[in-house]
Design goal:
Length: 273
């Protein structure tokens, strides 16, 4: 834990200085330390920000912010967290020499189905979704992750649970090198996106085809695509294993921040290993 904490703090502090991030000189707790605490919370304390804050106060920063001050700084620094992730994502993309990328989504529930009527975090029917692979219903968000072939996340997007996976194609940027290939299941099939990606960015979409598709694959290609997608299933299994039984959050935005950090910290942990 101490190695991860120190390593992440040093990296984040150097990144923020390199991008010219300005802070008040009177601050005793800089933004790098705030971001490090959030990452440590999701890596070692199941997303419990208060436990991570107390750990940092006891071992690394005696002048740590109070609970309310820390929460306000965390929400204000959400854009910094996203910028840092984009920098790491660029590193992960450059290190992916195969130029093969994987995309898929997984559900994250804000509560059990029996408690939907009492849920105050979300109160709209658009968050009621179905996980087809598990044949279960959930109430919350869908998280789409684009990863390298080795499972390092390079892009993350969120949608309400009732939305189809194909809607993620309009929410993600896919800033990948020319000649890259993206592997996904049939839910990400879109002829328009495939044609535009091939013409403008020279990116090939190797998605598993639906039964009624007009662009069918031979049997060998079908097996090849399925074998390539196995890595992201293992990645999602490892990410969700880091989740607690329930993610505590007071606001929907706070819930999304924690989900984002869980995926981010998985990539950091895998990269540092």
């Amino acid at each position: 834990m101490n190695f991860f904490t120190v390593a992440i703090y040093v990296i984040l502090d150097d990144i923020l200085k390199a991008v010219g991030h300005q802070e008040d000189v009177q601050r005793k707790v800089n933004d790098a330390l705030v971001l490090t605490t959030v990452l440590v919370a999701c890596r070692y304390f199941g997303g419990n920000i208060e436990k991570a804050r107390l750990y940092m106060q006891d071992h690394h920063c005696k002048e740590m912010l109070s609970k309310s001050q820390f929460n306000r700084r965390m929400h204000r620094n959400q854009y910094l967290l996203e910028q840092v992730f984009e920098l790491f994502a660029a590193v992960f993309v450059q290190g992916n020499t195969t130029k093969n990328f994987l995309i898929d989504s997984f559900p994250v529930s804000v509560c059990h189905n029996i408690r939907i009527s009492r849920c105050k975090l979300l109160e709209q029917k658009v968050f009621r979704g179905k996980c087809a692979s598990k044949r279960t219903y959930f109430y919350g968000f869908k998280v789409a992750v684009l990863t390298t072939q080795d499972g390092l996340p390079v892009e993350i997007a969120f949608l309400p649970g009732a939305h189809f996976d194909a809607n993620f194609l309009n929410r993600m940027h896919f800033n990948l090198p020319q000649g890259s290939s993206i592997f996904g299941d049939s839910a990400f099939q879109s002829y328009l996106v495939e044609d535009l990606s091939a013409q403008q960015d020279q990116i090939a979409w190797e998605v598993c085809r639906k039964k009624n598709t007009t662009r069918g694959d031979i049997y060998q290609i079908v097996l090849w695509k399925k074998s390539m997608r196995r890595q992201i299933e293992s990645t999602f299994s490892a990410i969700t294993d880091m989740f607690p039984r329930s993610i505590h959050a007071v606001t929907a935005n706070g819930f999304l921040i924690k989900c984002f950090v869980f995926v981010f910290v998985y990539g950091l942990d895998k990269w540092l290993a």
